[in-house]
What does this fold into?
Amino acid sequence: MADELNTLEDPREVRDAAERILQPLNGLAKLMLNARRPLSVSSLYQIKGDRKNHHYLLADAGSLSLQESAAVLKIGSDGTSEAVQQQDPMHSQLSLSWVDENVKRVLSLYGKADQTWKDLYPIYEIIESDLGGEAALVDKGWTSRNQIERFARTANSPEASGETARHGIPKGAPPSNPMTPSEGK
It folds into this structure.
């Protein structure tokens, strides 16, 4: 995906391509690192030294909250020890977003700043569709039917979610125990 930048000539096209690359990365950083500000392209440089166009991007650093991780040490029967390097989950998830359009869309939507019900519900719809329906979400143990109903009713109800609801007019009774946006995430 980043190779696309080397084929572009127009600086606006380079900036637009870089922003598209950053969208799923921002969602992943928010999801896995609790990033508070999205990364963005702040500067764009073109250097022509070898008669080729080179584009350099400086991403404006956002705020990240790092989490601890455990190291794995493998000890053999002869007493020797070896550190086992775990694959960085962000790398594999980001790579997946380059080949799976649904993963890319979910991460891009998740990376948006506010994440109101209007943002969260399409994420749910994409995941539900990609897995093959509501039953698949339940079968995988990711959620329950009651939680899905509570999520949908909260997201749709202006009485439960106010101006952030998906609908402007009530279309049914609000849930008795509305979900908070952080629960919806």
Observations:
- Strands lie at 40-47, 54-60, 72-75, 81-84.
- The radius of gyration is 21 Å.
